[in-house]
Design goal:
heterodimer; A: six-stranded mixed β-sheet; about 20% helix; B: alpha/beta; 8 helices; globular; FMN (chain B)
Chain lengths: ~260, ~300
């Protein structure tokens, strides 16, 4: 893990609550994988104090893109960073998604800003000739992001929202089982952004014997594995063990994560 | 380091090549990717307990203005894992290892200290007497002068290695505890552990820390720690390791002027992974600019 001062190429609002930032990654000298993240300094002041973990949204040859939800003072401060300024980022951090080379069809189940993490998987899948089916869940249509981006990478997108009364777990379950899995052999499930949808994904993966992975989100302190703030429980046989989301994760096998 | 400058400091019979070391709990082997461990005055791994323990409820950290609150709860894999995995990960470096010990009773402190003292590569022990004494209704050992004296003296009997008592700032008089630790046979005093603190989300009205309260660290606490270093230096002849809110070389020098012989850096590493070595470089520059040849000249050099 290295600290970089990356040149910000753009930082724009893309919907009422979401912003999109593009940074120059030519000096990174490291491969970045979907699911990995960067620990980003939101401002030069001591408040907001801690870095924020931002997963990579899109990985290009010379740029990296972030899609972030403006939630608190840290991400609010990030919106003040203008093109031409530098972004103090540490990374890439953590273990990313593993996309099986033999896979032909994958299912992405994303809620809210979880799409920022899974979009990078769709991009990598497309480059491997793998077709993505994506459940995109959000509060409203305005909160839905990256749909065009996913479709550009050949994904078939299923939209569910709270406003339209379509985002409840039972309906998502029906879509996955009846609209997708009934006609297509899904080789892997990837999920991020919602505990309820993660539990559903875990249950469907278990029922249909499909391997899967989940990217977890946690409050982080150092993001380097030193402080043990961001732990989660992982099943190992009949026992559970506590692991650090920042270093052992943030991506874990779906069947091993103990959902709280 | 500039060859004409001497940055050596001593804690008991332990000579450190420079006064900068990590604070326990804010440092791990993973940081070798970002940091040259051989430049550190000492290596201080996360506190170790006798048996594995799971740590506290989440969330374990929250942000405050100029700092953070944590309630990790000394998540530990136990002393056996520490000796078989953690120590070997640090032994390859030249910097001396100071093991931080946490325990739930005096007997356990003695037991774990005796085990660690048998390891040649462990050059000193830091006793984290700021943790709750389960036999004393959860009150920290270091909140009571009599218990502090007794604890240190019992550990003293099982090792000749330097003992550093990590004091808690959550006391009425840190001077009384410092005197007790010195009487018990400590070789150095760490001033200090984190400050008991709390933060509440005004929208949900819930505490921002799963354990309700936690330890406050970061630049906001530094003036309080500088005051405590100064106070402790008035009553104890032991070397002091300043700890709390150091973000820069000038912060570290401020603590040394107040009376610290060495300085630990914790939270700063969360913001900047090379904080420890950056701080060292800044101290070297300060010495150069101020024509200081021996860094020990700075210790307790406050002019009132």
């Amino acid at each position: 893990m290295q600290r970089h001062l990356a040149n910000v190429l753009s930082n724009k609002q893309v919907s009422s609550r979401y912003w999109h930032m593009v940074v120059d990654s030519t000096n990174l000298n490291k491969t970045v994988n979907p699911g990995q993240f960067f620990q980003v300094r939101c401002a030069d002041t001591y408040f907001p104090f801690l870095r924020r973990p931002l997963s990579v949204y899109r990985i290009n040859e010379n740029t990296i893109e972030f899609l972030y939800l403006v939630k608190g003072q840290g991400t609010s401060a990030m919106t003040k960073i203008q093109a031409g300024h530098s972004l103090d980022m540490m990374g890439p951090v953590g273990e990313g998604f593993r996309l099986d080379r033999s896979a032909q069809n994958i299912l992405l189940v994303a809620r809210g800003v979880g799409v920022a993490t899974l979009a990078a998987v769709a991009q990598a899948a497309y480059r491997q000739g793998v077709k993505s089916y994506a459940i995109m869940s959000a509060r409203s249509r305005d909160d839905l992001l990256a749909i065009e981006f996913l479709e550009d990478y050949g994904a078939e997108v299923f939209i569910v929202t709270e406003d339209e009364g379509t985002s409840d777990v039972e309906n998502v379950k029906r879509i996955i089982k009846e609209d997708i899995c009934a006609t297509t052999v899904i080789d892997a499930i990837y999920t991020c952004g919602s505990r309820r949808l993660s539990k559903l994904s875990q249950s469907i993966a278990n029922e249909l014997h499909i391997p899967g992975e989940i990217a977890l989100e946690e409050h982080m302190g150092c993001g380097m594995g030193a402080c043990f703030s961001c732990v989660c429980d992982i099943r190992e046989g009949d026992t559970t063990k506590s692991v650090r989301v920042c270093t052992e994760g943030p991506v874990f096998p779906l069947d091993k994560v103990v959902m709280e | 380091m500039t060859s004409s400058k001497n940055m050596q400091v001593t804690i008991g019979d332990l000579t450190l090549k420079n006064p900068i070391m990590p604070a326990s709990g804010a440092f791990g082997p993973e940081m070798e990717q970002a940091l040259d461990f051989d430049r550190l005055g000492a290596i201080v791994p996360k506190s170790i307990t006798k048996f594995p323990q799971p740590g506290n409820a989440k969330p374990r950290v929250c942000e405050t203005n100029g700092g953070m609150i944590n309630s990790i709860g000394i998540q530990s894999k136990g002393v056996e894992h520490f000796l078989s995995h953690t120590i070997p990960a640090f032994e390859k470096y030249q910097s001396p290892i100071i093991a931080s010990v946490s325990a739930e009773s005096i007997e356990e402190f003695v037991d774990v200290s005796a085990t660690l003292a048998n390891q040649a590569s462990i050059r000193g022990l830091e006793l984290n007497i700021s943790c709750p004494n389960l036999k004393g209704d959860g009150k920290a050992f270091g909140m009571d002068a009599t218990i502090t004296r007794e604890l240190i003296s019992q550990v003293r009997e099982v090792t000749t290695k330097p003992i550093i008592a990590k004091l808690t700032p959550n006391v009425t008089s840190i001077q009384d505890i410092a005197i007790a630790a010195e009487q018990g046979g400590a070789d150095g005093l760490n001033v200090a552990n984190t400050m008991l603190a709390m933060a509440i989300d005004v929208d949900t009205r819930k505490p921002l820390i799963g354990n309700v309260m936690g330890g406050f660290s970061g630049p906001a606490v530094k003036p309080i720690i500088v005051r405590m270093i100064y106070q402790v230096a008035q009553v104890s002849s032991l070397p002091i390791i300043g700890c709390g809110g150091v973000m820069s070389g000038r912060d570290a020098i401020e603590m040394m002027i107040a009376g610290a012989s060495a300085v630990q850096v914790g939270t700063a590493s969360f913001i900047n992974p090379t904080a420890l070595t950056d701080i060292l470089t800044e101290i070297e520059e300060y010495m150069e600019q101020n024509e200081i040849i021996e860094i020990e000249e700075l210790i307790g050099s406050i002019i009132i």
